[in-house]
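Submission sheet (multi-component)
Chains listed below:
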Amino acid sequence: MAFDADSDVSDEALLVLYANGDAAGARMLTVRLVPRILGYATRLLGDRAEAEDVTQEAMLRLWRVAPDWRQGEARVTTWLYRVATNLCADRLRVRQRRKLSALDDAPDVESGVPAAEDVLIDADRMIALNTALAALPDRQREAVVLRHIEGFTNPEIAAVMDIGIEAVESLIARGKRSLCASLSGRREDLGYAEGN
Amino acid sequence: MQKETDMRDQDLDDLFAIARAQAPSDDVDLMARVLADADQNLPQPFAFRSSVAVPSKTGFWATVAAIVGGKGALAGLGTATVAGLMLGFTQPTSVTALTESFFAQTPLDQVELLPGIDAILTKG
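Outcome: structure written.
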């Protein structure tokens, strides 16, 4: 069965389709949303296996809320990212209580794939970025990832994180300053020195 | 004062752009698990119930009875049919006179449509 994520049908319409007993709505939503939520959760948690658990749990909650979904109140993506954010925050709190280091759980680069030099450079850059993101306070990391990687607007981030827009802006500004500080001294290593 | 080795906003934006450009994570096993959850939680649509009573017995007369509104209505229809047939065969006088007038055999103004009761009164 072909999965087709390219469609003009909105996420809300697909969810209503599912709520009316049509499994095709779920298939399209899965193809569209699972990769995004998985990537987001992986960046927040730094652990692929945990990110998969969070993604599956978030989607399960979406299926269960479908019959009660009221169109026009919230976007499906906003609601789903909010659930994923809260699930990640719960796991990070547990991890903090266990005093596990987030740096130790930094995501690995895909291995076994021969790559050209540019790809290696990009891979190094991603390792550096993910390591720096993992070192941020949880809320700053959430805000920075939602804004600069997931592409949410500040009002959307405010809805996801259940905070005011000014708080979002503050978290993003502080997060970026911390990232720059974390990556200080690595500018040349990452290929950003003048002349590169 | 910013050092040459310090990351700049533009460098950070470039890192973010690389992260955005990376293909989203794809995991076939995870998608299969998510879809299995969706199937297990698939809502059952409201079952449409017909408002028209379907006769339990099949057959021509059962179907006709359902159409006209039941056995009582069918009986009434039958009675009316029989009455109409009787009128056609027995042809009461007033009816005959009326029909004949249409063919101008007896002018209508000479036809007594409401005959008196004298003829049926018994003497004494």
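Remark: Residues 1-5, 109-115 of chain A have pLDDT under 50 and may be disordered.
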